[in-house]
């Protein structure tokens, strides 16, 4: 398959590219606003093409008729979108619409796997969110995601593309540096202490719950979406809540202690951030994932396993 990954310089793009480039049957086009690197240590680096492109002006330079699938990962994260409305709308919405139009002109019917988020939901929420709950985002990021979800649904209904919208849980533990996501601390509070660094938890409530998925499990589910039948979902309802697990701040601290030792807890500081707190509290914490599980998606067994996976990869 020939597969395009947008936002390919980012963590998820690089993680997925590494898996795809370990399979000789894939040709992978990596694109981002800055030229993305080819992941180190892959078996078939010669199967990768890296292109620096701004989708707002250069989508046609990365789209061609030979594409079989597109993973759309480009975007400005949650707190970044909230801080700069114009930038968030431009990168998250306008660039996506321009990409979709390039695809429908050049390779109609191509499979598009769009990365959405649990941030499309907002209060009030039931205790457990299922696929029938109507999204009411309480952040610019969530609003931008729901706009793009509607575009994916419409372009699929019109047979311009074959779209799948994956509403990701928060991914933890992410390697690398902190991001502009409101949820960044949910990786940082594990990653930084294991690396001997300080991390601030921006909410003073150890019972605060998050819906999480490990990078390893996310990649499994992303690859699975390549194989789903086109009619696995109705043509105008293409969104799926990707399975996760509900974990409290205290449970995350317990996992850090078990894996890294009690001394790592001293590197954590709990200090409430009044700008982030409303965003964090608007997100759902439990999902009914029966539809996704029935399609073959999987969830993590425990957060401690996710921490151990990260530690082994350090």
From TrEMBL:
Gene3D superfamilies: NAD(P)-binding Rossmann-like Domain, UDP-galactose 4-epimerase, domain 1. Keywords: Carbohydrate metabolism, NADP. The keyword NADP applies. Residues 3-201 form the NAD-dependent epimerase/dehydratase domain. InterPro entries: DenD (IPR050005), Epimerase_deHydtase (IPR001509), NAD(P)-bd_dom_sf (IPR036291). It holds the Pfam family Epimerase. The keyword NADP applies. SUPFAM superfamilies: NAD(P)-binding Rossmann-fold domains. Transmembrane segments: none annotated. GO terms for molecular function: oxidoreductase activity. PANTHER family: ADP-L-GLYCERO-D-MANNO-HEPTOSE-6-EPIMERASE, NUCLEOSIDE-DIPHOSPHATE-SUGAR EPIMERASE. This is NAD-dependent epimerase/dehydratase domain-containing protein.
